[in-house]
Amino acid sequence: MIGTSNCAVIIPCLNESASITALVAAVRRQLSSVLVVDDGSTDATARLAESAGAVVLRHAKNLGKGAALQTGLAHALESGFEWAVTLDGDGQHAPEDLPALWHCAEQTGARMVVGNRMGEAHKMPWLRRAVNRAMSRTLSRRAGKVLPDTQSGFRLIHLPTWATLLLEAKKFEVESEMLLAFLAAGERVEFAPVQVLRSNRASHICPLADTLRWLAWWKKFHRPDRRHLAARSEPVKFEKTVGRRKNSAAPV
User: Fold this and answer.
1) Sign (positive/negative) of CA torsion 79, 12, 69, 83?
2) Structural domain includes residue 179
3) pLDDT in tens, 195-208
4) Model pTM?
5) β-strand 83-86 against 155-158: which pairing, if any?
6) Is 58 a member of any domain?
7) Which 3-state string (H, E, C) describes the chain?
8) Distance CA 54, CA 45 (A)
9) Residue at 2 is within a domain
């Protein structure tokens, strides 16, 4: 059974002082182990998260959401957790939906469960909704199955499985890369309906720049010499330093 003893929550953050206190408190009503990765914030995010009861890891400078997730997932695995839930720091995900992800994994045997927001897509900003749908259609064609919400950051991840995958994305394209990596490794991925909450701040996603970066990642993925989204033959090894992988070309 997935729960407090074997699952941690990871929240990558950049300047989320307006929402992080309430978010950590709400998450801790569901799970006691909350890890906030402060990705180079210049506000009080780290201090407020720690005061609310989270364990805080800090990047000295902003490295990107993918790098923050790598740091958090590696730390959770090293700490003995089998599962991790990732959610965004702006308060757009409802911690009350956590049990829906656990139940889906337990019922289906999935090694990743993605929170599917598209049942309440009308609550998402129109541009984010349009970009998400376009990317989800593209990834669905590549995967050969319907992937309704590929850009959702609300995910339940089986950490030992994640550790076997070669992942390189450091920015927002991490959501697409991780999803395809699980599927390419033959791991089951499911989607569970979740709520959409309105964030009190503008998105950190820059529609033009991040879409261009995603397209560059997509082009790179399709190069014959870069079809790297398959399972490693050996699980990745971690050093004691949080978030740093041995034999990695680009440590966090």
Assistant:
1) positive
2) yes
3) 988 765 555 555 55
4) 0.81
5) antiparallel
6) yes
7) CCCCCCEEEEEEECCCCCCHHHHHHHHHCCCCCEEEEEECCCCCHHHHHHHCCCEEEEECCCCCHHHHHHHHHHHHHHCCCCEEEECCCCCCCCHHHHHHHHHHHHHHCCCEEEEECHHHHHHCCHHHHHHHHHHHHHHHHHHCCCCCCCCCCCEEEEHHHHCCECCCCCCCCHHHHHHHHHHHCCCCEEEEECCCCCCCCCCCCCHHHHHHHHHHHHHHHCCHHHCCCCECCCCCCECCCCCCECCCCCCC
8) 11
9) no
Q: pLDDT tens digit string along 69-87?
A: 999 999 999 999 999 999 9
Contact 61, 68 (CB under 8 A): no
What's the whole-number average pLDDT of the chain? 83
Tokens of 71: 């740091």
Q: What is the token pair recorded at 174? A: 């991490």
Containing structural domain, residue 189? 7-226
Number of domains in the chain: 1
Radius of gyration over every alpha carbon of the chain, rounded to an integer in angstroms: 17
Report the side by side order of strands in the sheet with 189-193: 55-59, 34-39, 7-13, 83-86, 155-158, 112-116, 189-193
Measured distance between the N- and C-terminal CA atoms of the chain, rounded to whole angstroms: 32
| Both tokens assigned to 126 | 């129109």
Kindly state whether residue 150 falls inside one of the protein's structural domains: yes
Six token digits for residue 152: 């959702």
Task: Please list the residues that pair with 39 across neighbouring strands.
Answer: 59
CATH (domain of 58): 3.90.550.10
